[in-house]
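Quick start: what a row looks like.
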Amino acid sequence: MHAALRKQLGIEAAESVTGGCIHRCYRVRIAGQSRFLKLNDARYADAFAAEADGLVALRANLRAPEPLAHGNIDGQAYLLLDYLALQDTGDFAALGRMLANAHRKPGPRFGWQRDNYIGSTPQTNSWCDDWAEFWLTRRLEPQVSMARQKGFPVALPALKILEGHKPQPSLLHGDLWSGNAGFTAQGPVVFDPAVYYGDREADLAMTALFGGFPREFYEAYNDIYPLPAEYEKRKHLYNLYHLLNHLNLFGGGYLGQVKATLRLLGL
């Protein structure tokens, strides 16, 4: 951590903590208060700006850390957040209710006010009135194109499964796996978003990836905002996006899951 950054942010003490596989993360003390600091090189400044933008949006309806500052100091991009004291476990039913209530509030169209990132991959969010078109052109096509450029033989699925599906635009977390949700003494929290207005089923689908959420989460969600039966088929199309992204970011270890998902979609 550069001395210029310590001085400008007023950091009195810092200790390294875990916080994902992309950024360097610290618990810092500023003016006697604990804060959470993410650092990376200057090229990540826009990613931190996008994350701050997403957290502000989520905080209108979900519990999430408050972004306090972001920018670039002496070649280091940074994002300063509230520090959340996460617990080892918590009330997943409360998390399900919180998400369902947030999803029930309609948005204007599909997309978002700015592009952002899914992990470190750019994510296009230009506005669209048709959900199937949005999912094809803003989500699947860019990932399939990247995969083919890397030499992975990946097919682009037809979107017949979305024919006649007219979901309400809901504000999505966008990257809602088990590592991006947690619990404090005040209740459930979410973080590390990739927000946009989309089909709420896309958020729910990702909760089933990479370990999944427990049964009480889904029961509580469905008590407030029941999922249609067709979700069980569509979720594979939505999770294909995240599996493709992991294939592009981390390599061929995810190719088997991508191919298995394509088979579930009839390819």
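That is the whole record. The first helix runs from residue 3 to 9. The longest strand covers residues 33-41.
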